[in-house]
Amino acid sequence: MCSYIRSSDVNVLKILIKNIKELVQVDDGTRIKVTGKDMAQLPTLKDAWLSVEDGKISDYGSMSDWNGVEDWTGLEVIDATDKLVLPSWCDSHTHLIFAGSREAEFVDRIKGLSYEEIAARGGGILNSAKKLQDTSEEELIKQTQVRLDEIASMGTGAVEIKSGYGLSTDAELKILRVAKKLKESSDLTIKSTFLGAHAIPAEYKDNRDGYLDLIVEEMLPIIKEEGLAEYIDVFCETNYFTVAEMERVMEAGTAHGLKPKVHVNQFTSIGGIEAAVRHKALSVDHLEIMEDKDIEAIVGSETMPTMLPSCSFFLSIPFGPARSLIERGLPVALATDYNPGSTPSGNIPFVLSLACIKMRMTPEEAINAVTLNSAYAMDLSETHGSIAKGKVANLFITKEVPSYAYIPYSFGSNLVDTVILKGEIKSTNGKV
Ligand code: NIG
Ligand code: FE
Predict the structure, then answer these.
(1) Quick one: average pLDDT of 103-114?
(2) Are 348 and 373 in contact (CB under 8 A)?
(3) Cβ(342) to ligand 1 under 6 A?
(4) Quick check: CB of 128 below 6 Å from ligand 1?
(5) pLDDT at residue number 116
(6) Whose CA is nearest to atom 5 of ligand 1?
(7) Taking the mean position of all CA atoms in its chain, how far away is CA 153?
(8) What sign for the dihedral angle of Cα 47, 48, 49, 50?
(9) Average pLDDT, the chain
(10) Closest ligand, as measured to the CA of 235
(11) What global pTM score does this model have?
């Protein structure tokens, strides 16, 4: 049974959700991120209504102050008795455009090989790059659309997508052109990131500078000319790219209008955070291995520390020290890292559960981290990430649940009932 009443007018431009048990993450639209001890606060309104018009949240308030509807033309009314309404999740770190899967490596890891050993044998990123180079743009769009539909059904409404499984000019551009097409056609809000420096391709094994020259001199100018990305990323890590190499790529990216947003401290602490903050990175992502000096490097900056707990879960590596950052007065964002190697999952509700269970974040902190703070980590917090008048109407209605803490508590369940993206109803009862 559908949980909403469809009006006879098919051109629905307006939606009214009434009797909302609790409207979560409400504000006046002026907060752009939540920091330190403020992360423990999650503003909500109980027994509320919310209206949507022309793709935006037009208003919200308490049912006790509701004045009724003057004009019912084209209005869809949804009764959300016993249900919550939340802003759609913002997933600020994914590698969503990839070809095929790598479950054979998953089995190798179960049998005892490490992620690093698999990569050294030509598996890992290079394995995905080979698959992607042999996959057409149309096929990539098809595979990615399935993933977009799946994450939308779990409540995600905005997603950052990286290249990085191409590792040649043609293949990197193919990924970014797919991202551009999806940006234009998708119900979700999409931002894209150029991650040419994800791994050194086999043919450049003895000529690292040659690959960096290719990124800087050949790929970046085309990306700028075609407007293919907003951000520049580098996998700064032992056996991947050094801090100096990351700095070269960040500088070139910045010169081509791309803001740095980088992979650092996944397996080792080699000074990437300090360098990224110095280059005004929008976010530093992963942060599983953090020394005190890495935390201190972020203090006082505008850079959003972003942690990816489902990657820690899947690879059995440490979870990022979110509590230490919050206690040091820093914000924390959370994202999925959806990719075929270290995180074959785009499930934000599971990220919330892991954050609460494994990182000791409270439900309030975790929800702030996947809404306003992750919106900030993709330059979207002025339009996404909270329930505010004038923000894009990307939101979802839950099934009947006792409270918002029930979302991370009931790990593995999908509690999303109705998805609204850009002001349109996309699904009910969890089906897209
Ligand atoms: O973010 N760390 C670098 N890149 C991906 C994983 C890459 C892969 O194994 O395919 C990540 O975890
Ligand atoms: Fe990643």
Answers:
(1) 95
(2) no
(3) yes
(4) yes
(5) 87
(6) 342
(7) 15
(8) negative
(9) 95
(10) 1
(11) 0.96
